[in-house]
Amino acid sequence: MKKILTCLISLVAVLAQGQKLENALLWKISGNGLSKPSYLFGTMHITCNATLNKNVLKALDETGQLYLELDMDDPNMQAEMMGGMMMKDGKKMSTLASPEDFKAVDDLLTKNLGMSAKMLDSFMPSLVEMMLMPKMLDCPMQSIEEELIKVSKKQNEEIKGLETVADQMAALTAIPYEEQMKELVKTARDGMAASKAKYATLDKIYQSGNLEAIEAFMKAEENKMYADNSASLLDERNRKWIPVIEKAANEKPTFIGVGAAHLGGENGVIILLRKKGYKVEAVQ
């Protein structure tokens, strides 16, 4: 009997890995003992259009709590983020780049953020680049997470996080500072031209709901730093989220909103939940 069960588990894993996912950003989670379904939704953290469609609004109505990557309703979150933005061991951006490259970064930050690179010298370069994200859009920035929070607050529902600020900072710290700085310098040298083009492409893919295309984009050569560090940025975090999602969904119907890049792929949240025995189906 033990051998049979082992074979069945292996077969389920193989089938799950080989499944082609439909083009969808909203997925219903049911089965495996859940009394009512929960929902998994792929977000884009910054976008030109954060309007929630009727299916998402219906899913929010049918659930009793909201889980995002972080508890964005936590008043201490900003302070915790500020505390975790600094590089360890006294590293500074000015020592990770040549004087010419640091000057290019300084010019970029001064022009777009109104502050010099010296003011942010101890910050992780990837976080500095994230501060530039609103400038990479050709429109006023909108946030899907903020829209989800608005609806949940109107429904007097709790907003929670799948991980802590420290967890997110640890994932970024796993990327060598030298690699982070190289990417920031590249962004500065071309005046964010490549970054703007990438965001426009990613937004177009996102709107199509094609999770496989999102996965392929994140592995593309132009995203080499993120592709090389996908284990810490995506895979490890996805695995840690599964028990949290299971616990939440067993407590009450839950709406889970995470970056769409976390959904697809062999190590994505959809396949990981299916491997645990849940039925995860696209909501079209």
Automatic annotation (TrEMBL):
One Pfam family here: TraB_PrgY_gumN
InterPro entries referenced in this protein's UniProt entry, alphabetically: TraB/PrgY/GumN_fam (IPR002816), YbaP-like (IPR047111)
Protein name: TraB/GumN family protein
Organism: Flavobacterium cyanobacteriorum
